[in-house]
Design goal:
By secondary structure, the chain is an alpha/beta fold. About 65% of the residues lie in helices and about 10% in strands. It has a 6-stranded parallel β-sheet, sandwiched between helices.
Length: about 250
């Protein structure tokens, strides 16, 4: 798959949050080095050392002429900036840890890694009663399932049932790729909205033309539209249920 582990991890909200204080820290450090070089006419290495040990500034101006007072004042500003950005970074990590975000990010990373290793699996978009029933039957037959679900509570239910889950809108290409559509055998658009399922079929067939696509629709009026969207099979649950009842009478 084109998605790499590095790309996977760097796309996580926690890392994006931590990136801001990290960039602030680096920016302050670079400004500090540049300012020291300009004010005290020292080399880059010595200026970088002053970031770690501002007391060296006092020793420097004992043997060299220059704006000692201004440089010391600048050092106070730089040191303050480094301290504040460090506190910002620490607060970000701690709040994520106590809020459970680190745990969630690690779980999602592990889950995504397992999905990347899957081949010939079935992607089920929507874990309502229809999608859940299909997943249960396929699992019984030994098939691997990846569920795409927008509702967090429903997604957790799918995880509790033992399935790998991608949270997001299945009509979006990045979400389908996260679900391993490039290596999947088939996809079931099982959302309780015919229009959404048709959109899923359009996106999925555009990414993987050979993928077997089953689309759930609410009425026969959507059947032709779903097939034009790329569906190989169109299912109307109410019709199937009626046929099953009639056969039992």
């Amino acid at each position: 798959m084109p998605t790499t582990i590095i790309g996977l991890l760097t796309d996580r909200p926690l890392l994006r949050r931590a990136l801001r204080p990290a960039l602030a820290f680096v920016t302050v450090g670079l400004l500090g080095i540049g300012g020291y070089v300009w004010l005290a006419d020292v080399g880059v290495v010595e200026a970088a050392f002053w970031l770690l040990d501002p007391t060296s500034i006092e020793l420097h101006f004992q043997d060299h002429a220059g704006p000692a007072t201004l440089t010391k004042a600048y050092a106070i500003v730089v040191t303050g900036g480094l301290v504040l950005s460090s506190i910002w970074a620490g607060e970000t990590v701690l709040s994520a840890a106590f809020g459970g975000q680190i745990r969630d990010e690690l779980r999602q990373a592990r889950e995504q890694r397992r999905i990347m290793d899957k081949t010939d699996h079935v992607i089920i978009c929507g874990y309502g009663m229809f999608g859940r029933t299909i997943a249960r039957n396929l699992t019984t037959n030994g098939r691997d399932i990846v569920v795409i679900e927008t509702d967090d509570a429903v997604a957790q239910t799918a995880r509790d049932d033992g399935h790998l889950v991608v949270s997001g809108d299945a009509s979006q290409e990045p979400v389908l790729r996260d679900a391993g559509i490039d290596s999947a055998a088939s996809l079931v658009a099982a959302v309780d909205d015919s229009n959404v399922n048709v959109q899923i079929a359009i996106t999925a067939s555009g990414i993987a033309p050979t993928l077997s696509i089953t689309v759930r629709v609410g009425s026969e009026t959507y059947e032709a539209l779903a097939r034009r969207a790329g569906a190989d099979h169109v299912v109307i649950p109410e019709v199937l249920s009626g046929e099953d009842v009639a056969e039992g009478l």
